[in-house]
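Now for our specimen.

. . .
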Amino acid sequence: MKRVIALMLSVLALTGCAGVIPMETKDMQMQKVIEIPGTTKDTLFDKSRMWYAAAFRKANAVIQYENKENGRIMGNGIISISELGTPRDLRISVETEVKENRSRITVSGLTLSDPRFGEMGVQKRYWDEFKIQINDMMNGYEQYLKGPALSPKAENW
């Protein structure tokens, strides 16, 4: 009888912990390809660079790598959610790649920062919440690219 009770408690404990098993990084990735006909690679790169500055406020701190010739910008940022008044921050990797007439943005989750537990892996329940904000971020990137064309500053301001 003791063995049966011990087995049941073990199964209960293991199933209760299943929700806190961290996801693998490869499973925490979202990507979007944006078609913008008639737009040069250079224009898309410049607008992407400006989007980093607008979206993250400190683009120089966010951007870790950029190469205009290759059309690639890579950076790290933070997205925050609050659960029952407890803030949780997801460190993310953001990569934009541009070619003639199109751009691709890829956002990957890295680690979760919890004030009680420090840095830890991201559980699925948190990832599902963060996906909403990541999707909004990618839609904002698309709107920014499709916004007004870049033009030289007017001389008479």
In short: The radius of gyration is 21 Å. The beta strands are 29-35, 63-67, 72-83, 86-99, 102-114, 118-120.
